[in-house]
Amino acid sequence: MAAPSARDQFRNWETVRLELEQVVARVDPATFEWKPVAGEKVRSIGDLVRHLCDAESYWIERVIEGKDWIRHTRELYADHESIQERWKQLRARTIAFLDSLSPTRLTDTKVDHRGNLVTIGWILWYVFQHEAHHRGQIYMLLRLRKPDRASLVD
How far apart are CA 102 and CA 131, in angstroms? Predict the structure, then answer.
């Protein structure tokens, strides 16, 4: 039996991301930018999606691939649709990267922004678990905003 591909090793992430994208796509623009309390450090769903784009772009495109990186700010991605489209583009690029990645390269090392030596496998795991973490925050914000909704997924 052949060893699983790099993409196969992270297959569950695709399921988690697709469900999260489907939930976020149904969020109305007002809820997308709603915050339960005022404050600079309080994030809306939109802020969290922009943050997830930042993280995926930074780790995959900048650290692994050595490409330029830009912040996904509200000024650049002000509306609901533009940041979701960017998120889908990043996902497609990450999947293409996984498809091209030999499992033996998962142990290749890169240097992060703090000067730490990290493996490509660690980076991918970090990006995917980071998304799962913020998925919980997004779902909580939806529950706070619309507590009577029967399901976030349906």
Answer: 23
Alpha-helical segments (H) within the chain: 6-9, 11-25, 29-32, 45-56, 80-100, 120-145
Q: By percentage, how much of the chain surpasses pLDDT 70?
A: 94
117: β partners: 111
Asked whether residue 153 carries a pLDDT value surpassing 90, the answer given is no
- φ, ψ of residue 52 to 5 degrees: the values are -65, -40
Name which of 76, 68, 14 is nearest 50 in CA terms.
Answer: 76
* Token pair for 30: 């007002």
State the Cα–Cα distance between residues 81 and 140, nearest whole angstrom.
21
Main-chain phi, psi angles of 117, to 5 degrees? -85, 120
Run of H or E including 78: none
In the predicted model, what is the mean pLDDT of residues 122-130? Answer: 94
Nearest Cα to 121, choosing from 145, 138, 140, 105? 105
Q: What is the CATH number of domain 6-34+41-145?
A: 1.20.120.450
